[in-house]
Amino acid sequence: MKSDQSPPSDSALLPLEGITVVALEQAVAAPLATRHLADLGARVIKVERVGEGDFARQYDSAVRGGAGTHFVWLNRGKESVELDLKSETGRDAIKTLIAGADIFLQNLAPGAAARLGLGADVLRADHPELIVVDMSGYGDAGPFRDRKAYDMLVQAETGLISVTGTPEDMTKTGIPSSDIAAGMYALTSVLSALFRRATTGVGARVAVSMFDATVEWMGHAMYMRLYGGKQIARVGLGHAAIVPYDKYPTQDGTILIGVQNDRGWDTLTRVVLDRPDLAEDPRYETNIDRVSRRAEVDAVIAAETKRFTTAELDRRLADAGVPAAEIRDLEAVVEHPQLSERDRWRDVDTEVGPIKAVLPPMTFDDIELAMGPVPALGEHTEAVLREFGIAVDE
Predict the structure, then answer these.
(1) Are the beta carbons of 39 and 380 closer than 8 angstroms?
(2) Which parts pass through the membrane (predicted)?
(3) Are residues 314 and 368 in the same domain?
C-alpha cells in the first residue's frame, strides 16, 4: 500500500498539543469542529448531560449493535464529563474547567449559555485570553434567532433546497451540509483566533451560525439571482451553467461527465467519442451555445456514450483528461482503491469495540494526526474533576 504520509517523526508535535478545549455541545455542527481540534492534538473535554449525554448518542445503535453512527463519527479523541448544569455545583465545576482552558465552544439554544453564567463577556472578563465560540442556527440577533435550526430547516431557509434536486422535485442534500459548513467555519475561526492570540495574548469571542455558513456557500446561485435576475434551475446531477455536465448511459450502466470549458468539449468529441463533426459544429461551439441547447446536447452525447462499457469509457475519458467519474454507492466507497491503496483506514477504540475510521483529511508530512478513542458517557468525569481540583462527591 502507498500512503500519502511520510513515516511519523518521534520528535514532531501534533499542531495543537497543549491546547485545551471545553465543549458544551451536541448533535453535529459543534462536535465536528471539536473533533477536528482533537485530531489536531488539542485536549477536548466534552461536557454532557448526566445520564443522557449528547442526544446524538441515541440517533441509532448501528455500530456493533450499540453505538450511534453520528456519535462515533464526531466524537473520537474527546474526554466525556457528566455535569448537572442545573445545579450550582455543576455550573461552578464547568467554570473551573473553562478557567483552565484555551477555548470554550458551545452550541446551546440562543441565550442558554448566558443564563448559565457562561456568556462570553462574563467568562472573558476574568480570562481575556480565552477564545469563546458561540454556535447557533440563525445567529444571536434577528427575527429568526430563537427558531429551531435543524439542518434540513436551515437548508430550506437559505435556498439550498431550492437549487437541489430535479426540475420536478426539490430535495435536501444527503448529508447535513449546513451543520458541516458551520462546523468547518468554527474550526477555522478557532485556528485563526489562536494564531492572533500568539501575537497579541488576547483571546476572542466568535459567533458562527448555520444560516450564515450556508448562505456563504450559496455564492454562485446568489449572484445569479442578484445580477442575472433569475433563479438557477434544478438540473439533478447536471450543472445549471455548464453543458455537458451530467449522467450519461453506457452499455452496462452510467457515467458522469463534466466538461468545464470549450477545450474540454473539443477533446471529448474529437478524441474520446471520435466525433470531430461535433467538435466543429457551430451550434455547439461555446458553453453558452451548449447550455442554450441542453437537451439536444445531452441527447447527442448519450447516443455516443452508449457505444462503450462503463469501464472502457472511464478509461478513455481518463486517458484524454476529460473530467469523469463512476457513480458509486457507499459499499463501493468503503472498498474504494483510492482509500485502500493510500492506507487511509485506521482502527479507533469505542465502548463497543474497535471500529474502522478514515484518517483526517489534513495530512501532515511529519506526523500522523491523532485518532483517539470515542468516549463512553461520563467515562472521564472523576479523573478530570480531580485533576481540576473539583470535589467529585459534589
Answers:
(1) no
(2) none
(3) no
Q: Are residues 56 and 189 in the same domain?
A: yes
CA distances from 24 to 46, 95, 258 (A): 6, 12, 43
55-96 pLDDT, tens digit per residue, is: 999 989 999 888 999 999 999 999 999 999 999 999 999 999
pLDDT digits (tens, 9 = 90+) for 207-250: 999 999 999 999 999 999 999 999 998 988 888 889 999 999 99
What pLDDT, on a 0 to 100 scale, did the predictor assign at position 7? 56
Q: What whole-number distance in Å separates Cα of residue 39 and Cα of residue 43?
A: 9
CA 318, CA 272: separation in Å to the nearest integer? 9
- Sheet strands (E) in the chain: 20-24, 43-48, 78-82, 103-106, 131-136, 204-209, 245-249, 254-258, 324-325, 345-348, 355-358
Pair 44, 144 in one domain: yes
Cell of 20: 485545551
Is residue 197 located within the same domain as residue 262? no
Q: What distance in Å separates the CA atoms of residue 310 and residue 341, rounded to the nearest whole number?
A: 22
In a domain, 6, yes or no: no
Are 258 and 134 in a shared domain?
no
The reported pLDDT for the residue numbered 11 is: 64
Query: Per this entry, what is the length of the chain?
Result: 394
Q: Give one word for 111, left, alpha or beta, with left for phi > 0 and alpha for psi -120 to 50.
A: left
The answer to whether residue 81 sits within a structural domain is yes
Mean pLDDT across the stretch 113-123?
95
Same domain membership, residue 166 and residue 29: yes
Q: What is the CA radius of gyration of the chain?
A: 25
Q: Report how far residue 258's alpha carbon sits from residue 260's, in angstroms, rounded to the nearest whole number.
A: 6
Q: What's the whole-model pTM score?
A: 0.90
CATH code, domain with 87: 3.40.50.10540
Q: What is the pLDDT of residue 93?
A: 96
As for how many domains the chain has, the answer is 2
**CATH number of residue 278's parent domain:** 3.30.1540.10
* Contact between 193 and 204 (Cβ < 8 Å): yes
